[in-house]
Amino acid sequence: MSHVIWVEFDLLDDVRAQFMELVRANAAISVRDEPGCSRFDVLEAPDGAGPVALYEIYDDEAAFRVHLASAHFKEFDARSAPLVRTKIVRSFRAYENAKA
Questions:
Q1: For the chain, N or C: smaller number of CB within 10 Å?
Q2: Is the pTM here over 0.90, yes or no?
Q3: Mean pLDDT of residues grouped by 10 in the chain (100 residues)?
């Protein structure tokens, strides 16, 4: 059973480009350097407006805790915090669907 994280960021005005650069780098490093991170998608509306969302899949909750303790996450969190109006983080368990 995977550990899934859903995050929504409501950004301050005129910071989207800066935020997207930071979050996309964090996502790429997470997938590349964290064995327990199997997916890290950065999502936004087709028109580039509204919140930015993250969809992250980890092997388990322990792998997510490794992510939170990583230097690259701590840097992203510190550098992006001033750009964010609100942040909502939700955790889920993912159940594998049976294949026919």
A1: C
A2: yes
A3: 96 97 98 97 96 97 97 98 98 77
